[in-house]
Amino acid sequence: MSSPFSYPGKLYLLPTTLGDNDPLEVLPATVQKQVERINIFIAENEKTARRAIKKLVPTKSQPSLQFFLLNKHTEPSEIPSFLEACKAGTDVGLLSEAGCPGVADPGAEVVKIAHREGIQVIPMVGPSSILLAMMASGMNGQNFAFNGYLPIDKAARKSEIKALEKTSHEKNQAQSFIETPYRNNKMLEDLIQILHPGTRICIACDLTLSTEYVVTKTAAEWGKTKVDLHKRPTIFILQKDY
After folding, report:
1. Which of 1, 57, 154, 213 has CA 20 to 30 A from 50's CA?
2. What is the DSSP string of 152-211?
3. 236 pLDDT exceeds 90?
4. What CATH number is given for 10-123 in this structure?
């Protein structure tokens, strides 16, 4: 059977840790093996990418590495050129700042172009905060949605939270979302005030770290609970069951 791919080089989606812990505690040896041999990387930030690579493969030569930066400053017209090495037969690695590339991550644009160009995409196993939170939440893991960031405007946020609660009830669908870490405590306050007292809320923060905290309670129960989420990466999930 002929190959469905147009070029010999592959795009490897390389997960990173969710925090400052030993990478081999959460990443399989297969990821380490690919990072060891790949020298061209696409990343949001070169400094943090180099640090992640060094922690995973301490002996790897840093001067030999080449980086293409994909962030809010990257012109869309530049992105296709990041995959030229694949067309020439060299594998390229796509790194996320935390967790899995392409999921709540700008790397999805690179993956889209790779498929369009006929370049093979190989996802590697690693930690996804979204999936880890769903696994531990006790909510509907067969029907859930990730909604990214909710609006900052107070009225728009209240409307969105109510809409997510309504959808969760009508579709029996868990609704997950995130907030800028320094606004996490305010987000929990808003959820407690806006949601029905019986609606369940899961808070999953510092996943895979020694300070990991995953707890599901009703909105009313959270109103009686003290927890500090300030500057702690957190996934929020809500579900109205009745």
Report:
1. 213
2. SSHHHHHHHHHHHHHHHHHHT-EEEEE--GGGHHHHHHHHHHHS-TT-EEEEEESTTSTT
3. yes
4. 3.40.1010.10
Indicate the pLDDT class of residue 22, thresholds 50, 70 and 90: very high
Distance between CA atoms of 92 and 80, rounded to whole angstroms? Answer: 13
> Where do the domains of the chain lie?
10-123, 129-239
Dihedral (CA of 53, 59, 60, 64) sign: positive
Give per-residue pLDDT as tens, 131-186. 999 999 999 999 999 999 999 999 999 999 999 999 999 999 999 999 999 999 99
pLDDT for 210-229, tens place per residue? 999 999 999 999 999 999 99
pLDDT at 233: 96
Cβ neighbours for 52, distance < 8 A, ≥ 6 positions apart: 16, 17, 23, 95
- Provide the pLDDT for residue 74: 95
Q: Hey, what CATH topology would domain 129-239 get?
A: 3.30.950
Residue 49: burial class (beta carbons within 10 Å; 0-12, 13-18, 19+) = buried
Q: Which helix (H) or strand (E) holds 215?
A: strand 213-218
Is the backbone of residue 171 left (phi > 0), alpha (psi -120 to 50) or beta? alpha
Phi and psi at 69, nearest 5°, equal -95, 130
